[in-house]
Amino acid sequence: MQPTPDVLARAAALRTELHAHAHRYYVLDDPSVPDAVYDQLFQELSELEATYPSLKTADSPTQRVGAPALDAFQSVVHDIPMLSIRTETDTTTQGAVSFDTRIRKELELGPEAPPVTYAVELKFDGLAMSLRYEDHVLVRAATRGDGAVGEDVTRNIRTVGQIPLRLPPNAPSTLEVRGEVYMAREDFDKLNERQAAAAQKLFANPRNAAAGTVRQLDSGIAASRPLRFFAYSLAHQSGGGADRQLQTHAETLDCLREWGFPVSEWTQVVSGADGLSAFHARVQAARDSLGLDIDGVVYKVNSLAAQRQLGFVSREPRWAVAHKYPAQEALTMVNGIDIQVGRTGKLTPVAKLAPVFVGGVTVTNATLHNEDEARRKDVRVGDTVVVRRAGDVIPEVVSVVMERRPDHTEPFTMPHQCPICGSVALRFEEEADYRCTGGLVCGAQRKEALTHYASRKAMDIDGLGDKIVDALVESGRVKDIADLYRLSLSDIATLPRMAEKSAQNLLDALEASKNADLARFLFGLGIRHVGEATAKALVRHFGRLESIMNAPLDSLLAVADVGPVVALSIQTFFQQPAQRDMVHAIQALGVRWAEHDGLSDMAALPLSGVTVVLTGTLPTLSRDEAKALLEAKGAKVAGSVSKKTHYVVAGAEAGSKLEKAQALGVPVIDEAGLIQLLADTIGP
Ligand code: IVH
Hints:
Elements: H1 5-27, H2 35-51, E1 75-77, E2 86-88, H3 94-106, E3 117-124, E4 127-134, E5 137-143, E6 149-151, H4 154-157, E7 174-182, H5 185-197, H6 206-214, H7 219-223, E8 228-238, H8 249-258, E9 268-271, H9 272-286, E10 294-301, H10 304-310, E11 312-313, E12 316-317, E13 320-324, E14 329-341, E15 346-358, E16 361-367, H11 371-377, E17 384-388, E18 396-400, E19 425-427, E20 434-436, H12 446-454, H13 466-474, H14 481-484, H15 489-493, H16 500-513, H17 518-524, H18 532-542, H19 545-549, H20 553-557, H21 564-575, H22 577-588, H23 599-602, E21 611-615, H24 623-632, E22 636-638, E23 647-650, H25 656-664, E24 668-669, H26 671-678
Parallel strand pairs: 2-13, 21-22, 21-23, 23-24
Antiparallel strand pairs: 1-6, 3-9, 3-10, 4-5, 4-7, 7-8, 10-13, 11-12, 14-15, 14-17, 15-16, 15-20, 17-18, 19-20
The site of 2-(butylsulfanyl)adenosine has 15 residues, from strand 3 and strand 8.
């Protein structure tokens, strides 16, 4: 049959796409699509080629398995080819039943014959490795490559602690062991943290990290990355202790263990299709707690004699199969990028996805975490992306399929305004997240903010706990603090599960809170970076709320312990008209506190305008005492030394602050000098 032009075009498109994906996967260790997607495209091409044999070109991706060795490594011809395993993609019990049925048929077992015994294992998601030992010493480690020719990666593999470099005397002297090199999940997470800290490229998953490490030309880098190994087969043994006649695969694994190779604890001998599917289910349930990535389980006929009888079809043994699990990654389209506002005001970019079935559920949202992550992945509206959902983990966008990016897309930028309340959103230095500065006026943060306002260290409003706050907000009766003071007895008493007595108590507590303390009120507003101590310092310095609300940055910076980040946070908060209106409304509803003139009284103090840094241990005064004495005279006690520091008071074991003072030429005094200073005998 001759292919139609449509079929010809489709086959060409599939070949091109598969070549591009294969290059990213095998050569660059940076796959552009999940394995399942690649398999599907590959399958489509294989089927077209089966129908129209003329499509089977020499360069078709179906004509080779794996990829040629990188130039930089020596090639290794495998004396015994490294095989692949047939994959059973039916992820239900049926997958196990089909394999068992096929084996029974091939072995010509009638319905009366006893169940077949299988050795079952994990299908590790790493990199196949062949280890050759001569005279008991590891002489060569080779990758699988295309199964016939691989790469010599001995130098890198010698750095893997779990791989024996020398075998015990009871082992055969010549041995070829096969297994999987992989990276455990916790090691992978740590490696990526290190990569991020060093501004290096992050790895997409543990498999890529393992593959990238094994193919490092610099084995020093390989040594610094934590690879592990599990042995799963014996390709050859001779000499030395090789008189052991092995009968089964399970015995082989026991020997490998005895000879010092790591063999997974997740190996078992089971019987019949029921045994296979029970193991499949048991591993599926434990999948997220295995500590390493797997993409299925492997079933192997246990009897080595039966294995020999079954033999091979092309590059795959008839006696083994890999039984898969539902894919945890899938491709879908990004229809939009929304911003979610959390209870603490954190803004999170979330990709809105075309619904896709992944990890057993339909996913329509995936988190992009924060601005840096969204930029690093460069996710744009219109992109095709890889979405991952493992276990109960929140779905996330793994990467963008750049090959499928449409024209005219726009890079994502974080909004500088809260989408809920319109307040300014700020990202503070050294923080990853943007935060809405709306606090009490922001609907998303309402409950959290009201609970904080009522808390013991803030306004201490008895009876206004989480549950009542939730009920008040959900009933729509309270939108901000001012609304609390507008509540009537019946507003509260009609809330679900609220007794009249407790309603009256709450109303009384609210009334009592009107007689307030400014520092507690200020702390209660929940301004980011303004804790109790800072609120007190602000009140001590400015005396009046209105002065704090209108303070320019430099005046804020003059307050003890207020640095640029805190000052910016306070200023931004009070620049929002909604915040100002709310504060004024609260005052109009009767909330009062005592005020004073602040620093203007203190300006007359002898040490006002003087900045002092304390360091080391003083002979008689504790640090807090020294600080209190200085502040009482109007001095500012700062945490670090700068050119603007007037004095450094140094005690025993003063460290870097003393050195810095000396370097900057700041006068250094001891406790006696401090006492003189306090006694006004020396001035600024
Ligand atoms: S046995 C006879 N056992 O799967 C087949 N392979 O498709 C020889 N793999 O590249 C392999 N876990 O890296 C075997 N428990 C396991 C395995 C396993 C993972 C990989 C192996 C190979 C691929 C074969």
